[in-house]
Amino acid sequence: MKNPSYRYPRTSSLHRTILCLICLLTIVGHAQGFRILKKSHYIVKKSSAYSGITIRDDNGPTVNQAAIPFPHVFEEIYPEDYLDFLVLGDWGYQAKGVGEKKGDQVHVASAMENMTQEYGTQFIINVGDSFYKSHRDDYQGVNSVDDNKWKTVWSDVYHGRLAEIPWYSVAGNHDWYNNVTAEVDYFWTKNHRFFLPALFYVRHSYFGPQRIKVTWIHIDTNIFYYDYGYLDDRNSLKSNFRAFEMDKPGMITDRLKWIEEKLEENQDSKWIFVVGHHPLIGSCASKHLMSRLPLLFKIYGVTAYFSGHSHTLEYQSSKLSSPTTYFTSGSGSRFGSGCDGKDWGVPSGTLGFLHVRINGNSSKLDFQYVNATTYESEILHQGTVDAIPFIYPKEY
Ligand SMILES: *[C@@H]1O[C@H](CO)[C@@H](O)[C@H](O)[C@H]1NC(C)=O
Ligand SMILES: *[C@@H]1O[C@H](CO)[C@@H](O)[C@H](O)[C@H]1NC(C)=O
Ligand SMILES: *[C@@H]1O[C@H](CO)[C@@H](O)[C@H](O)[C@H]1NC(C)=O
Ligand SMILES: *[C@@H]1O[C@H](CO)[C@@H](O)[C@H](O)[C@H]1NC(C)=O
């Protein structure tokens, strides 16, 4: 790791000149919803290497391309002088209660739909566990791009504006238990709104007349959270890790290196966010290699990390020793408990999501946790977070 002392505050012009980022995709969000400017900008052809097709490198092993960080940056431009998004996790559970057709996720969907309408929300950050085994005859994740669960668990449930804006996604462990490649393929071959071009990718959102730059780094935390060596042979995660060559230590080191490179390259952003499935709050950050991430986030001034996995709503606020704010929004359809060490959270038994808004004139983001356990939703808790949490002096 290089000496970080030269990196604060985030510089702009220097990095801009160094950067030559290829923008593959221009998305314009506008008041009416979401529109793809030029379909041809999607590099579906070139990307076939990134679809689930497993290719064989002449010199070596078979690697599933979905596991390779997407080499180009996706770019979005929003004319509105705000960025507004919802963070939703662990939403694909449809256990059917008595008299219910679609389980608890419909309450959350209803509150989300109302909120996106009210605020002109531009996108959803989907922190994963998109498809669960919901009942005895069901299975984890999805089987293929044609799985009926795309319809029954996703498009039949989330209506209105939720069905118009993109869902920027990462994969959770339940997505990995089955065919995670099919979720990546679904993006490339079926529906770009389920945005998962690879398991690791970078986006830039520019908004307002000043074109304020926000960098998003979407990562797959499964390899940092679960220790391959300790996984049970019957656990499909193990064989899937192997298929993606994630059993090789070098792959994990490479991913950490990639994350650091992306953080370093994007120091000219006003906001840097990282999105992953597993939480990094308090005790949860000590799982396997997870603790490597907060170290990077601290050095490179990550404003916030968004996750799910814990089926709860909670966060750990910015502090001198840990300047990044850690948000968990993992109660899109299931109840559970969270991590020891949170600064705020709900007891088990609450469903909901997180709403975030950044106004163009502000260096703080506003957030609200919403209780959507029933059709009578309510704001549970709100607060603000600074764009650059702490300006560090030299050594630390
Ligand atoms: C969403 O709005 C509708 C119409 O006002 C209302 O009936 C419904 O209860 C709201 N949903 C939630 C979860 O608040
Ligand atoms: C996973 O899904 C992809 C895309 O639908 C498909 O090509 C592949 O055969 C599936 N793999 C398995 C093991 O079912
Ligand atoms: C959320 O709403 C449900 C249903 O009204 C309620 O039982 C629960 O206590 C609420 N959660 C919190 C943390 O207030
Ligand atoms: C910033 O913009 C928002 C939305 O337009 C507005 O409500 C707020 O008053 C503005 N704040 C300042 C400090 O100008």
From TrEMBL:
The record's listing under Pfam families reads: Metallophos
Where in the numbering of this chain does the Calcineurin-like phosphoesterase domain appear? Answer: 85-312
This chain's protein is named: 6028_t:CDS:1
InterPro entries from the UniProt entry: Calcineurin-like_PHP, Metallo-depent_PP-like, Metallophosphoesterase_PAP
List the keywords (alphabetical): Hydrolase, Signal
Give the highest taxon in the source lineage.
Eukaryota
The signal peptide annotation in the UniProt record is: 1-33
- Which residue ranges traverse the bilayer? none
Q: Which GO molecular function, any one, fits this protein according to its record?
A: hydrolase activity
